[in-house]
Structures are given as structure tokens and as C-alpha cells.
Specification:
five-stranded mixed β-sheet, alpha/beta, globular
Length: about 280
């Protein structure tokens, strides 16, 4: 009996000693102070796409989409050809002409606002009237309501390549523009201006094609004074009028800067002032 009791006490002491040893290992200070490393989440694993964006990324993305949307909205598809009947309810605009003027300005055709107001270059976004003054062609600021007095007060005139009204140039056909150049030439021969100012590259291209029977090549074109030896547009017994070409003054045309247009118009203004001074002597 004594031997059995002694064996039981030794086994109990040994078992309890093991438990105490493990308890000390789990509660040791070094174990408690060791930092733990969190297990990696799915979004932080290499090659795993994230499912959320930071506020700055979201803002940048929204800004980019907004800008792209604005750009797409600004792109306007040009209108297609419009037959004369489409704008037949809008009246044509009378020419501002007289015989032997210093210069006649040639526009493309009346726009809707020009037709409604019955005055040339009537749209307030059109640069024609500001450039006319800044170039020195006239001595004071004018508006479209002064168009009828140009021949009398300033020895200048205005007419159009095509008389019918449209909302945009794209509603006119190229063949129509070329055919109208013949009618314009007859008008110029009748009124005999010293010079004409073609307000738009497309107008001059139509005139050139009418007279030369071929298209004007890109490397042949230039703004300003034109060489008239080949086409002699509006020629008569006393000679042909000088031709000066400027970009369209329409507010829709933004291919050329305001500064470039102003500088180009100054050359024309110098000519007009010189001729006017000669006539007054």
C-alpha cells in the first residue's frame, strides 16, 4: 500500500509540473510583447485587384469622365445640304453697293440672324464690324445697322456669293458656290470696284474653280493680296479689281486667331485709306 501511494504522488507531481511549465511559457513577458502580424487579406495579395478607390482617385476619375463628356458635347455634327425651300420663308438681304467703290466685301451668304434683321453680318459674334474699324477701313465704330451707309459715307460696299439664307455653310453645295461665282462676276463688272475683299477661304476657292476650271491646290493658297494674272476675276476694259482674301469673320470659325485676323486686315486698311485719300485730292 505504501509503495502504491508513493507512486501515485510522484505521478501527480510530475503531471502538475508539466502543466506549470506550459503555463509559464504561454504567459512569459517575451511572448506577450511580441508583435503579431495580421494575416494578409485578399485585396492585399499581389496580383489581386482592389475593389475600392481612394477619395482622390475617385475625384480624378470623375473629373476625367466629366471632361470627356463635355468634349463630346462640344463636337457638333455639321448640317447637311439644305434645299432652297427649307429657308424660303427667310427674306434675302439687299446688297450695299454703288458704282466705282474702293472695295466691296464678299460674304458667303446671309445667316438666319442677318436675314431676320435685314442687315449684313448681323450676328453679334461676327467680327466683321470690329475688324472693319480696327483695320482703318472706316474712321469710327460701326454696327450692322450702318451697312446701307457704307457706299455713301466710306466708299465701301458689301454683297454675298450666294443670296439665299442658310443656318450654316455646310447647307450649301460646292457646285452651288461655283455657279454663283459667275453671277458675282457679272455684278462686279457692273459696279466696277477698285478691289474686292473675299471674306472666307471657301469663297475664294469657289471663285478660283469657276475661273480656272480646276481646284485651288493647298500650296497655291495664301491670305492677303492675290495674283490675278491667271483668273482675272471681274475683268473689264479698264482692268480687273484687286483681290484680298481674309478668313471668315463668323464666330463659328475658330481656326485662326483674333490677332492673326487683325494683322491681316491692317494691310487691307492701308490700301483703302491710301485710295480714299487719292480720291479726295
Amino acid at each position: 500500500m505504501a509503495a502504491n501511494d508513493k507512486g501515485k504522488r510522484e505521478r501527480a507531481i510530475s503531471f502538475n509540473g508539466l502543466l506549470d511549465k506550459f503555463a509559464c511559457m504561454e504567459e512569459s513577458p517575451s511572448s506577450r510583447s511580441r508583435p503579431t502580424t495580421p494575416s494578409p487579406t485578399k485585396s492585399s495579395l499581389p496580383g489581386t485587384p482592389t475593389s475600392s478607390l481612394s477619395p482622390s482617385d475617385m475625384s480624378a476619375s470623375s473629373s476625367h469622365l466629366s471632361s470627356a463628356s463635355k468634349i463630346s458635347k462640344k463636337r457638333k455634327v455639321p448640317r447637311r445640304y439644305a434645299p432652297p425651300a427649307q429657308y424660303a420663308h427667310l427674306a434675302p438681304v439687299a446688297d450695299c453697293l454703288a458704282a466705282d467703290l474702293i472695295c466691296v466685301f464678299i460674304g458667303l451668304n446671309p445667316g438666319i440672324m442677318t436675314s431676320q434683321k435685314q442687315h449684313m453680318f448681323a450676328n453679334p459674334t461676327n467680327l466683321f464690324w470690329p475688324l472693319l474699324f480696327e483695320s482703318g477701313c472706316v474712321g469710327r465704330r460701326l454696327t450692322c445697322v450702318d451697312d446701307r451707309r457704307l457706299p455713301m459715307d466710306w466708299n465701301l460696299g458689301i454683297t454675298n456669293l450666294i443670296s439665299r439664307t442658310t443656318a450654316e455653310q455646310s447647307e450649301l453645295s460646292k457646285d452651288e458656290m461655283v455657279h454663283s461665282a459667275g453671277e458675282l462676276e457679272s455684278k462686279l463688272r457692273r459696279f466696277r470696284p477698285s478691289a474686292i475683299c473675299v471674306v472666307g477661304k471657301g469663297i475664294w476657292e469657289a471663285i478660283y474653280r469657276y475661273k480656272a476650271g480646276k481646284s485651288l491646290k493647298q500650296d497655291q493658297f495664301k491670305f492677303g493680296w492675290q495674283d490675278m494674272d491667271e483668273i482675272r476675276f471681274g475683268a473689264q476694259a479698264s482692268g480687273c479689281p484687286k483681290v484680298f482674301v481674309v478668313p471668315s469673320t463668323s464666330g463659328r470659325v475658330a481656326a485662326y486667331s483674333r490677332t492673326m485676323k487683325a494683322e491681316l486686315w491692317k494691310d487691307l486698311g492701308q490700301y483703302v485709306r491710301t485710295v480714299r485719300h487719292t480720291h479726295q485730292l
